[in-house]
Known about the structure:
Blueprint: E1 2-4, H1 17-21, E2 26-32, H2 39-52, E3 58-64, H3 71-77, E4 84-89, H4 96-106, E5 111-114, H5 126-134, E6 139-143, E7 150-151, H6 159-175, E8 188-191, H7 192-197, H8 206-217, E9 222-226, E10 228-229, H9 243-265
Parallel strand pairs: 1-9, 2-3, 2-5, 3-4, 6-9, 7-10
Antiparallel strand pairs: 5-8, 6-8
Helix pairs in contact: 6-9, 8-9
Amino acid sequence: MFVVAAETQSGSGTLPPSALASLGGVSVIMPTLNEAGNIELLILAAANSLRNAGVSPFEVVVVDDDSTDRTWEIAQSVVCPGADIRVERRMRDHGLTASLRRGIELARYDIVVWLDCDFSHPPEKIPQMVYMIAEGYDVVVNSRYTVGGGEDRVGKGGPMQLALSTILNWGVRFLLRPSFSDYTSGFIAARRQILNDIPLRGDYGEYFIDFIYRALRKNVRVCELPYKAPPRKSGESKTGKHFLDYASRGRKYLATVVRLSVESMLGKI
C-alpha cells in the first residue's frame, strides 16, 4: 500500500496520546563526513523536535566516517539533557550506505529515522514521519516532489545540483513507479523489521532508490509527506563539486534502475 498524505500537524506540535502510546522508542541516525559546522546544532534540533512532540524514549546515533574536521569529537561533546547521544567513529568501510547499515545495527528502538546532516533535511519534520508510523505505516518518506513539497537549494546547495537532482528523479519515476515522488529523498522513518527484511544495498544515494522500489514491490505500507528542502547551512555537498561528479553519481543511479527493472521482470523482487 502506498499513499501520499498532506503535511501533518505533528510537524510542529505534540503527538496525540494515542500515537505516543503505540511508539516503542525512536532512533535517529546521523551519518556524517566533515559536518563539524552542523552536527551540534543538528543533534540539539532533532532532540528538541522529538521532545517537543512528546516522543520518549529516543536516541541520536552519530555514525562518522573518521572526519578530518573531527565531527565525531564535536558530536561526543554535545550535552543535551534527556537525550541519549551515541557516537561511533568508523575507521574503515567508509561510505554513506555502510554508515547507515551500521547505524541500523546500533539502533536500540523499533522506529528508525535518518536524515542528511547539513540541515537540507529539517529536523523539525521528523515528528510528522514518526506520527504516520504510529498510525500504521511501515515506511514514511519526507518528499520534496509531492504536492506541498519543494526545493530551496540555491546558494550553498547549488543550482546545478538542484536541476540535475530534479531531472534524475523524474527519470527514475518514469522508469520505475511514477506514483512515488521522491526517489532521491533519503529523509525517512521505517520500522526496524522492514529494514531487516529489505537491507540497504548500494554505495551512495542509489541505496534509496533500491530500498524504496523493493519496499513498494513487496507492498510495504509506504507514505510520502511533503516538506521544503532548504540549502545546507555549512560545509560542502558530498554529491559533487562539478558536472563530472554529478554524472558519475547519475550513472550509478541509472545502473540501479536497470538492475531493479531486470530483477522485477525475473520475479526476484
